[in-house]
Structures are given as structure tokens and as C-alpha cells.
Design goal:
The chain is mostly helical. Helix content is 72%, strand content 0%. It has one domain (48-261). It contains twelve helices and no strands.
Length: 262
């Protein structure tokens, strides 16, 4: 009761999102009320502006002094350092759970286990290989703009899981002890703006076909949603992280395939 009575200020939730989704020491500057963390998904794409921007800047500057392949690897490493591999950890757990699990209880138990299994290792290796290859196949400026767009866009798309599914565990069983609240209509509009602005800029500057890069990645999210609904009747934080990375990877694959086709 005491927590819910705490009033939050307009900047509390976006600040909480930066603390929650990155490993940068924003908490040293200001620690928002605990209630703010239930709404961090509403500013998930905004953190993508930071992580995607850092990755894009590394690609741009790295290409000036390093071979393109090395710049791509360094850029991926920079984002991993900023996020603490938060979503990659979710992808590994997701692959282990859905790859090796059977019934709902077994899948949830595997995903909560801190040890990585065969499916998780293979999933991360394949993801990193596809990510690096997709970025390497694009011209540097196209890759820079695509990274700027794909990071917030994938977070915007993946955030819809919170509206489409219930949380699969009890709140006290959550890894971060936080269950996201369902975004309101206003929050949904804010999410759309956060995710679509960089995407619109990328489409405008690169000439990539907007209908494929906007519609194909959400299909990836939809198929993952169907899998979660059938297997565990809900979502977890690991599911959100895995969906985010796979939707983002779909953006890169669509973008590089269009460039090669043209």
C-alpha cells in the first residue's frame, strides 16, 4: 500500500527504463520510485535510441580507422557492454526452455535456471553469426541507419507482448521482481512514436521498401506470440528479450536482402 501511494514524476519512468535496460550508472544520479519500474516497457524503445545510437556511432567511427568486419564486431561488443547482455541472456534462456522443455512447468523451470544449455549456446552462436553477417553485408552508412532504426523498432514491436499475453509466473517468481503493467492508450501512442521515428528516417534516407521492413519483423513477433500462448500461456522477461532480438534480426535480414536484390 505504501508503494502505490508514492507519486511518480514525469521523468521517473523513462529514467527507470534506462536503469532497468542498461548497465550504465544512471542510478547513481537518481533512483526513481520502485513503482516506476512496472511501466519501464513503455519507454523500452527510448532506451533503444541510446543503445542503438551507441552501436551506430561505433560502426560509423570504427569504419574510419578499422576494417569494416572489425568495426561490426566492436559495435556489437559495445552494445553488449551497455546492456550487460540482458536480452542475449533472455534469448539463451528462451532457446533452452522452448527447445528442451516439454510441458509449461518444465519450460518455465528451464528458463529460470541460471545455467545455459545446448539450445541456448547454439541459439546465441547462430544469432551472433547472422547479426554480424547481416551488418557486414550492408554498406557502412546503410548499416548505421538501420541499427539506429532497428533497435527502437524491435523494442516497440516486442512490447506488444505485454498487452497480448498475461505474465506466465507469479510476480514474486519474476527474475527482476517486476511485472510490467499493460500500457495505456497514451503509452501505446508514445511507444509508436519512439519506435517509428528512427524507422521513418532510415526508410527515407536509404530507400528501403517500407512495407517489407515494417511488416515482416512484426510477423516474427506474432509467430513467437503464438508459440508462447500455446506452450506457456503467457510471457516472461526472457520471452520479451528473445523476441526483441529476433525481431531486430529480422529487420537486418530484410534490409540486407533488399540491398543485395537492388
Amino acid at each position: 500500500m505504501e508503494e502505490t501511494s508514492v507519486k511518480t514524476r514525469w521523468f521517473d519512468t523513462p529514467w527507470a527504463a534506462l536503469i532497468f535496460f542498461t548497465r550504465l550508472p544512471f542510478w547513481r544520479i537518481y533512483q526513481p520510485p520502485q513503482a516506476s519500474y512496472k511501466a519501464v516497457v513503455e519507454f523500452w524503445p527510448l532506451t533503444g535510441w541510446l543503445t542503438g545510437g551507441a552501436m551506430a556511432a561505433t560502426l560509423y567511427l570504427g569504419n574510419m580507422v578499422l576494417p569494416w568486419a572489425v568495426a561490426v564486431i566492436v559495435a556489437i561488443a559495445v552494445r553488449l557492454l551497455i546492456t550487460g547482455a540482458l536480452h542475449e541472456d533472455g534469448l539463451a534462456d528462451f532457446m533452452d526452455g522452448f527447445g528442451g522443455g516439454g510441458d509449461r512447468a518444465r519450460i518455465l523451470s528451464i528458463m529460470k535456471d541460471s545455467h545455459i544449455g545446448t539450445y541456448g549456446v547454439l541459439g546465441l552462436i547462430l544469432y551472433m553469426l547472422l547479426l554480424g553477417a547481416a551488418l557486414y553485408s550492408m554498406p557502412p552508412m546503410v548499416a548505421v541507419l538501420t541499427v539506429l532504426a532497428a533497435d527502437p523498432f524491435s523494442k516497440m514491436v516486442s512490447s506488444q507482448l505485454v498487452n497480448m499475453l498475461p505474465y506466465a509466473r507469479r510476480e514474486e517468481e519474476a527474475k527482476n521482481k517486476t511485472v510490467y503493467r499493460k500500457p495505456s492508450l497514451t503509452a501505446g501512442l508514445s511507444l509508436t512514436v519512439q519506435g517509428m521515428l528512427p524507422m521513418a528516417l532510415m526508410i527515407w534516407l536509404t530507400g528501403i521498401s517500407w512495407y517489407t521492413v515494417i511488416f515482416i519483423p512484426p510477423l516474427v513477433m506474432y509467430f513467437l506470440y503464438l508459440l508462447m500462448r500455446r506452450k506457456i500461456q503467457g510471457y516472461t522477461g526472457d520471452c520479451c528479450g528473445a523476441t526483441c532480438l529476433l525481431v531486430e534480426l529480422a529487420v537486418y535480414l530484410v534490409a540486407c536482402s533488399q540491398f543485395i536484390a537492388n
